[in-house]
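Notes taken during the Thursday session

The instructor put the following on the board and asked us to keep it in front of us for the whole hour. The protein is tRNA-dihydrouridine(47) synthase [NAD(P)(+)]. We were told not to look anything up and to reason only from what is written here. First, the residues (331 in total):
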Amino acid sequence: QLEIQGKLYLAPLTTCGNLPFRRICKRFGADVTCGEMAVCTNLLQGQSSEWALLKRHHTEDIFGVQLEGAFPDTMTKCAELLNQTIEVDFVDINVGCPIDLVYKKGGGCALMTRTNKFEQIVRGMNAVLDVPLTVKIRTGVQEKMNVAHKIIPKIREWGASMVTLHGRSREQRYTRGADWDYIAECARIASPMPLLGNGDILSYEDADRAMQTGVSGIMIARQVLVGALIKPWLFTEIKEQRHWDISSSERFEILRDFTSYGLEHWGSDTQGVEKTRKFLLEWLSFLCRYIPVGLLDHLPQKINERPPYYLGRDYLETLLASQNVGDWVRI
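Then, after some discussion, the predicted structure tokens were revealed:
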């Protein structure tokens, strides 16, 4: 069993949830981390770029990997391979990915509509793994047609140790508010299997409200705007129950550390520098959406609020708020 009660889980974030970023989040108090979504067929073909997604840093004390696939044979074979070759605490199946490329091949969210395949995948992987198997799902495929409550008891029966529920359907993608009432209902149905809730958490108040719904823990992920990507110090805020008016220089230090971690992870040759720069720029496209606590008229910032243009309290704070790509390059 996975001991995860009340823990803060940094969701597997495609491209942005790389090892250097996870190191930053661990420092700020993330309890559980997970590698970026890895595609089973690519792993079985031995693609080194895909295997790199499964790398773990020694500070990641509770670490899992997330697999995506559409067929029981490849998913089971892949789970067996991982069981023999890497050290992880759990393996997660991605049944929440909404993108067409994955959905049309029958993977991600599509598995919620292919119950037989879904069952064979969970049972097959569970049989070959020595570590707990977890599953991440959405409320359903279509808006206003929730099916998670029907699937969750089956997932428990098939042998999964835990479910994470993102409170939106595939059609909603990352728009609209997450349905926490429905997440609460599903948490009751899932019991005694732990269920983690996911959606719209950008402050400790959001996290407290989420924990009161009866979930076993919360996952901090990418939403309309992105909790952990906008403010990786969110984990500290939740644990210390406060709003942190973090200074622009402290935020700049985080970027400096990310750069050092990036060069350590991807190498300091031309390729490593380019890769670190690419991921730093991508992260800056999220970080600029953060509004400093000291400038807010009302607390907390809501995840679906688009920040107005504002002048920071110093030049660096203004620069960090810029939505201009040229400014991100300058940073």
